[in-house]
Design goal:
24 strands, binds beta-D-fructofuranose, alpha/beta, Rossmann fold
Amino acid sequence: MTLHHQLRNLLLPTLFMLLMVLAGCNKAAKTAQYKIGFSQCVGSDLWRRNMLDEMKMELSLHPDAHFIYADADNSSKKQIEQVKQMLDEGIDLLIISPNEAQPLTGIVEQTYNRGIPVIIIDRKTSSDLYTAYVGADNYQIGKMAGEYIGSNLRGRGNIIEVMGLPGSSPAIERHRGFTDALAKFKNIQIKAQVYGDWLKDHAQIQLNLVQQDLKTADALFAHNDVMANGSREVLNNMHLSHHVKVLGVDAMPGVGGGLQMVASKTIDASLVYPTGGKEAITTAFRILNKEAFAKENILQSLVIDSSNVRLMKMQWSKINSQQKDIERQQSLLEEQRQVYNSQQLILNIIVITLVLAIVFGGLAFYWLMENRKINRSLEVKNNEILSQRNQLMEMSARAEVATEAKLNFFTNISHEFRTPLTLILSPVEDMMENEKLNSIAGKNLKLIHKNIFRLLRLVNQLIDYRKIEYDKQQINAAPNNLVDFVTDIQESFRHNARKRNISLNLISSEKNINVWFDANMLDKVFFNLLSNSLKFTKDNGRIQITFTQNTQNVEIAIQDNGIGMEPEEAEHIFDQFYQVDNDNARGSGLGLSLSKEIVLLHHGTIKVSSKKWQGTIFTITLPLGNPYNYNVQPGKLIDTTGIGERSRIYTNDLEQSEIKTETTAIGNPKEQSILIIEDNADLLIYLADKLGTVYEVFTANNGVHGLAEAFEKVPDLIISDVVLPGMSGKVITENLKTDIRTSHIPVILLTAQASVEQQIDGIGSMADVYMVKPFNYNQLLATVKNLLKNRMILKEHFTSDVSHGQTPVSKSLDKKFLNDFAGIVEQNLANENFNVDDICKTIGISRVQLYRKVKALLGCSITDYILNRRLKKAKYLLNNEGYSISEITYMVGFSSPNYFSTVFKARYNCTPSEFKRKQTS
Ligand code: FRU
């Protein structure tokens, strides 16, 4: 597993975990546990504000809850809409103080029936379908008011009742309780009853309408303190002579509240009517938390008047200050909670950071360790590489010294060669001019002459190469006409080209192309390229030299339609000492490499493009003018007479020996035949000439052709070069030795590869003999004779008795062939129509091949062999079985007993019957 993967495997789960923790924190902070809706009939008066404050105070203990509040502003219609909206929003519980009982009953029932708990507070609906009720007993309040007034007036007087909103349950119930209480007092009369709708101004309007009744009134009961206050104002405005007692409901503490009104004697008494806000919220949570709760939560009331108002106020202010304390503590608590939350968050972040730090720290440590390990191994490798590099440098320095020494040696030797070669050349040329000698040894003299030039060329190339490569020879350039120069060189090849009917043309649009070059060097390039083209172009071919000039360069293309090269061959053609594996006709491997160096010295380029069997183009590009500031040698002209002389070492080598490309049997038909496969025409001709005096000779100048000839002619022996164009001698041998048609033919491989390993390799290739060049002809001839003689010994063995199981034939293929051949003959001895074609068909080779193979292995013709086997079998039958002569005649495939008798007698000097008699007697 890679570090990258390990990191990913560690980090991803960690990050995921952290996200989950953070998400968890957010969730706890934001998600409300319950949604509680509160629908208030009116929210603007003191009593209702207190109710809301109480609720909020209680809710602060439940921070999870979500509280939705709506004020219907004394409108039942609006209240219905608001409840509907709450239901749509989705609430868990509804608290409602219905404006009027009847109109709100429907929506409350609907809510309840949906399974949403409903708490009715203060005012009621007309139905029992609610979950819980919180509020004081309004009937009881009305009754307490009636009783209080009754006893205060001592059972006598006139009373005015100012009622709340008609249809609202407290107004109905308070009125009922009030009238029920007053019924006990016979002398008390309710003079007037008006609806003040719970509001001060409405009450005042209504009271002003009953002023007459007010004049005689002794007491007034208003259903709440707000209306009681308004009533007092109306009474005051009337300036009555007597005091009218005013009684209200609510007794709210605080500014403008009923308690203050009683204390300031604005009103005479008030009945405590608790808002129930706190109780409503506690009940709500009991319901939501599925705890026990009471359906009817009735709150207590009492009368506040001058006798207890002070105590009530004191208690209230005490409660108020406690309330404030609670509020302060709550806000402190809230602050603490926030601090706690933020600390929790910080803690979480710290924990996460710590975990990450540990993870990353671990990884960093691991990487550090890994890095150290890698560094250590790199250091070791580095040291190894350094020491290897040093060794290599040492070796290369030593190799350079050795190469230098070798090259010096070669150069010196090459120089040494020149003198003896020249000394051989002159006498040979003298001898060639001598007609007498020419007629005796002309052919050999020509061969010697040609090869002296070849050696001279090689020696010169070695020296030139050495000069350029190691002495960094500078060129002595002078401006000359390149077209004339190349034309002269081309002319020296003209004779050779004409002889072989090769068209040799030079095409140039310009007659004069002035280029700076060193004639003594550049000529080698063109000599080389042209002699190559001629060497690899077949008779009747075409060679063309084309000049193309542009503003900066001149391009000289030498194109032939010769044998061309394979791409890999062309790629290496300029490499030093490069030789194609199976083609020694390419030369020393120095010529083209040298040419390239010379062209580079002229700041030019040389390229080759070639296609096998289609031809080759060498393109040289040389710069025009003297852009490289060669030493100016004015007036130095080209020595054109020298060109002809210099060209000799290139053109002489091209002189082809008289060789036909087709294989030829040279000389008269001889008993035994030899196939020579050799691409060096001189050597081929030499060997063919020499061996032709003793054997029938076939020749081939490339591998493919040689192999085809071997199959067609089935010679008695094959001499082949190892390095050949088309197919190597080793491959040819392998093919021959693994084919039943030719497996018996002895093969001699000739090679210039002289190392022991190469010789062992050659012998391993199934060749019978491996001879290293230069070889001695007599040794070769002796080897040929020896191999053919061995073949004869084998033949004698085979012919003595083919059916004999033990044969010394080491070559299993030949053994198999002989077994098959003998088997077929044995099976067909009785068949008088049996002939050679039958055997050819069965074995699968041609008549000639069969004939040659049988002759080579058994030394007799096929028919002789068959006849021999028939007679031998006849002899055996005559000897051992009791058949008659005529029976035996047909058993051994003779057409008539007479003919059998004649043949038998010719072989054994007695007739079959005489033979049988001799045996039995
Ligand atoms: C406030 C109020 C109180 C009264 C109650 C009856 O809106 O008028 O004064 O006691 O409502 O529902």
